[in-house]
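Quick one:
INPUT:
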């Protein structure tokens, strides 16, 4: 049974930092591209950042470039999102996603973690 468990969300002031983690189990982690998505009520889920299975390729949505950094530790089967210089518009539920690098139908989601940026 595949499980993706996010942690690290919370309340932070504008300009602050948070580090999200996504711990994976039940899959061969190194075979999966990993992504962070976020969603606010009434809006579609948005891709924030993606990292390739080997960790050598990363992509970011324009709104977080230069502020967020995605990384992974395949030995620990964990993905991270370091979020710096947070803004109120970063407030959302952040979800972890795993998609097999070849077989795209193998696609899994975590339960989400709330990030709130407010003074």
């Amino acid at each position: 049974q595949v499980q993706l468990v996010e942690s690290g969300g919370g309340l932070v002031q504008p300009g602050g930092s948070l580090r999200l983690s996504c711990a994976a189990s039940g899959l061969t982690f190194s075979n999966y591209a990993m992504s962070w998505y976020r969603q606010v009520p009434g809006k579609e889920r948005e891709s924030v950042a993606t990292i390739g299975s080997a960790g050598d390729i990363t992509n970011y949505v324009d709104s977080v470039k230069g502020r967020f950094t995605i990384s992974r530790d395949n030995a620990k089967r964990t993905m991270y999102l370091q979020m710096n210089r947070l803004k109120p518009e970063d407030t959302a539920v952040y979800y972890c996603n795993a998609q097999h690098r070849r077989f795209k139908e193998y696609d899994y989601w975590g339960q989400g973690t709330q990030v709130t940026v407010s003074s």
